[in-house]
Input
Amino acid sequence: MYKIVLVAFALFGAIAAQHYYQQGHQQGHHEEEHYAPAHYEYAYDVHDDHTGDVHGQKESRKDHTTQGEYYLIDADGHKRTVTYHVDGKSGFIAQVHREPIKGYQAPQPQVHKVLAVPVSHGYHH
Output
């Protein structure tokens, strides 16, 4: 008797799981059809003289095509520029270009002098 009940529960569970999967699968395809095409553009630039942080990026997307570029100044004074694009299912395709910056001097770390001052605890015996 117990074996029949367990088999019935297992069979019921398998049928319920299949129904749940089919409903979710159909619903997922239905939802994808309602998404609006993606369109955006953005850009930013950072130039911090104090830290030497120089970098930026720009990117645009229309439907399934994304293209962009980002750049930064490497520690050795070269500007690295990466141009990329994605078109449909092609994957991420990038080209990297590096060029030295004439006259580039990396920011020097600032040294702060700290004076040691003896501390009196004020204990008197």
User: Anything to note?
Assistant: DSSP finds one helix and five strands in the chain. Strands lie at 39-48, 53-62, 65-73, 78-87, 93-100. The radius of gyration is 31 Å.
